[in-house]
């Protein structure tokens, strides 16, 4: 095996949904540069399901971080599995020390990643982290691949693909989402697994949903059905119910009820998604769905949606972006974002993207 032509590549992808979507262009770069190589991703269960069959990936290894592969003995079990696969190169998009340890004890000869978390000595080639702290995360991953291949990064946008089988299965499971076919569906993603600092206020999501439904029905009577769809991950069921209970219109409540692949199908059905800075925000953009993204504690320079129709809503406060999980003061970055602001952004995006007859 030469460095320029590896035969069997292991890619440790990020743990968060949004980060995993943002690394899709880098995965495409790897596939294009190493056309004949077998590419396997190592990922936590949810990420593995989302990325399966994407970007020319040949295989998936699941990192059962909460069960089988938890702790030092779990890592040893996983390293035994990896060692038997005889990978000749590992590309580490995950920045953690653990990723470097795992690939090192798995006897992968070429191990490449950013020199972060004190792990440079465990890598066969460590790459200096980009000095530009405002660099978008998508380009951050692509620059690592560029350092490996010595080829400049291509201008790509993240793209997720939904299989016909998944689509048909989802349509059968959630008929209220897909029928009638001419229903206008407004997606609302009010949560954030990362922490409460990212979340806009539940009562404002509820007010926004009612106002969008009312205005669309008033201005476009040809749509006999306009509904909001509340989505969210496991653990966000109570938040979804709270918002649904506040709404006068009848939303479709799917918080905590969908797998990651079902969520991909449902997002594609939405006319627009109104969301905090979360994984579904990036998923929607990668599926071609227009997005209104509300930013508070996080930095839009590094994690804003990439490509497609989008509107960013935020209020400038001195303490943002703080990148904290929970606000230690008055959550002013989110309380300062009014319903009127988000409503205006959503309606402009809807009317600008879709032609109503």
Please explain how this structure is put together.
This protein has 357 residues and is α/β, with parallel strands linked by helices. The protein folds into two domains: 8-149, Rossmann fold (3-Layer(aba) Sandwich), CATH 3.40.50.2000; 164-353, Glycogen Phosphorylase B (Rossmann fold), CATH 3.40.50.2000. It is built from 15 helices and twelve strands. The model has no long low-confidence stretch (mean pLDDT 93).
What is the makeup of the main sheet?
A: 6 strands, parallel
**Which sequence of strands runs across the widest sheet?**
3-2-1-4-5-6
Q: Provide the CATH top-level class of the largest domain.
A: Alpha Beta
Global morphology: globular
State mean pLDDT (0 to 100 scale): 93
CATH architecture descriptor text of the largest domain: 3-Layer(aba) Sandwich
Structural class assignment = alpha/beta
**Into which percentage range does the β-strand content fall?**
5-15%
Question: In the CATH scheme, what's the topology name of the largest domain?
Answer: Rossmann fold
Give the fraction of residues assigned to helices.
Answer: 25-40%
Look at the structure and name the CATH superfamily of the largest domain: Glycogen Phosphorylase B
Query: End-to-end span in angstroms?
Result: 60 Å
Order of helices and strands: EHHEHEHEHEEHHHEHEHEHEHEHEHH
């Amino acid at each position: 095996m030469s460095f320029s032509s590896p035969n069997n590549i292991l890619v440790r992808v990020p743990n968060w949904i949004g980060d995993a979507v943002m690394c899709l262009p880098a995965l495409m770069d790897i596939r294009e540069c190493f056309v004949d190589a077998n590419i396997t991703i190592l990922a936590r269960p949810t990420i593995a399901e989302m990325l399966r069959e994407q970007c020319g990936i040949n295989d998936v290894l699941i990192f059962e971080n909460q069960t089988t592969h938890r702790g030092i003995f779990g890592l040893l079990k996983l390293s035994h599995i990896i060692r038997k696969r005889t990978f000749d190169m590992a590309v580490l998009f995950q920045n953690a020390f653990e990723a470097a340890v795992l690939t090192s004890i798995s006897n992968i000869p070429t191990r490449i990643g950013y020199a972060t978390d004190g792990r440079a000595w465990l890598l066969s080639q460590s790459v200096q982290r980009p000095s530009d702290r405002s660099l978008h995360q998508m380009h951050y991953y692509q620059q690592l691949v560029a350092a490996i291949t010595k080829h400049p990064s291509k201008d790509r946008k993240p793209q997720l693909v939904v299989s016909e089988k998944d689509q048909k299965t989802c349509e059968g499971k959630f008929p209220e989402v897909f029928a009638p076919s001419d229903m206008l569906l407004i997606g609302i993603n009010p949560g954030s697994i990362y922490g409460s600092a990212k979340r806009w206020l539940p009562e404002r999501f509820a007010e926004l949903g009612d106002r969008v439904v009312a205005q669309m029905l008033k201005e476009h009577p040809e749509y006999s059905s306009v509904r909001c769809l509340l989505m969210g991950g496991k653990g966000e069921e109570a938040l979804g119910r709270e918002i649904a209970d506040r709404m006068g219109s009848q939303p479709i409540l799917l918080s905590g009820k969908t797998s990651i692949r079902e969520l991909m199908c449902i997002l594609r059905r939405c006319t627009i998604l109104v969301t905090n800075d979360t994984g579904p925000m990036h998923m929607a953009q990668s599926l071609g769905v227009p997005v209104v993204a509300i930013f508070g504690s996080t930095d839009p320079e590094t994690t804003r949606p990439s490509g497609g129709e989008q509107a960013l809503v935020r209020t400038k406060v001195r303490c943002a972006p703080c990148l904290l999980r929970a606000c230690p003061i008055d959550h002013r970055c989110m309380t300062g974002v009014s319903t009127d602001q988000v409503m205006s952004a959503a309606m402009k995006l809807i009317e600008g993207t879709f032609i109503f007859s």
